């Protein structure tokens, strides 16, 4: 078992960066820590690192998010590809802007209340039991309504996104490789708020040709002139090309 401890952090400090400072003084000033792909299982007490703003812990064996309540200055947290099953102990991270949790075991998006600065949430490719899909706690969605602008929910067996309607400031929704069944379930609830919606390789693509009211046009010169639905078709659709659909 590998624990992320202050001793481990200290052993990885570049001595040239310390100058005449003690280890404790240096740890108090440090803003970035990168311990990705280090077989870490447990996050230990790192509370000396009070100025930490960016923490890279992806590609480890972490099963619980803990001992981060001290990190009130943290803005970016990278926890992709671990073994995390529960979104917990994050509410003290009031300055958090970007949260990366892709490739874990999370079944419910929850416990993000109070994170008023959160702009990006990446929770793609959760390793869920067969037949299960990623769920959303309505209280969490409501708490993110005014802040979240980018949401990545790709490859999570999702078949409906109606509940995301509350995310009033969402500008980019990435929903690749899901089970979205009908194009109207996307347009109706997101076209007014999104600049770009990426729905690569969903079941929805099979129904597109059955929508006679939809008119295909060439992409406009600016992505941000009006909301767009960007449909990038999988490679085996050799006779079709990616296109923008305007409604």
From TrEMBL:
Gene3D superfamilies according to UniProt: Ribonuclease Inhibitor
Pfam families linked to this entry: LRR_8 (PF13855)
InterPro entries per UniProt: Leu-rich_rpt (IPR001611), LRR_dom_sf (IPR032675), SDS22/Internalin_LRR (IPR050836)
Cited CDD domains: PPP1R42
Protein keywords: Leucine-rich repeat, Repeat
Top-level taxonomic group: Eukaryota
Signal peptide: none
Key word Glycoprotein present: no
Organism this protein belongs to: Monodelphis domestica (Gray short-tailed opossum)
Name of the protein this chain belongs to: Protein phosphatase 1 regulatory subunit 42
PROSITE patterns: LRR
């Amino acid at each position: 078992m590998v624990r992320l401890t202050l001793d481990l952090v200290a052993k990885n400090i570049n001595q040239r960066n310390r100058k005449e400072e003690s280890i404790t003084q240096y740890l108090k000033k440090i803003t970035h820590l990168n311990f990705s792909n280090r077989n870490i299982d447990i996050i230990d007490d790192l509370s000396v690192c009070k100025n930490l703003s960016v923490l890279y812990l992806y590609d480890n064996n972490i099963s619980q998010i803990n001992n981060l309540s001290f990190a009130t200055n943290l803005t970016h947290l990278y926890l992709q590809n671990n073994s995390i099953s529960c979104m917990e102990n994050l509410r003290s991270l009031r300055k958090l802007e970007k949260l990366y949790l892709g490739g874990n075991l999370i079944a419910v998006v929850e416990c993000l209340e109070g994170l008023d600065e959160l702009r990006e949430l990446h929770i793609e490719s959760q390793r869920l039991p067969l037949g299960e899909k990623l769920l959303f706690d309505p209280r969490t969605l409501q708490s993110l309504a005014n802040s979240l602008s980018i949401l990545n929910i790709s490859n999570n067996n999702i078949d409906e996104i109606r509940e995301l309607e509350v995310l009033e400031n969402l500008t980019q929704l990435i929903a690749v490789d899901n089970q979205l069944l009908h194009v109207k379930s996307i347009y109706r609830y997101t076209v007014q708020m999104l600049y770009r919606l990426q729905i690569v390789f969903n079941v929805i693509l099979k129904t597109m040709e059955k929508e006679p009211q939809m008119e295909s046009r060439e992409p406009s010169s600016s992505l941000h002139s009006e909301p767009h639905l960007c449909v990038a078709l999988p490679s085996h659709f050799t006779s079709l090309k990616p296109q923008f659909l305007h409604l």
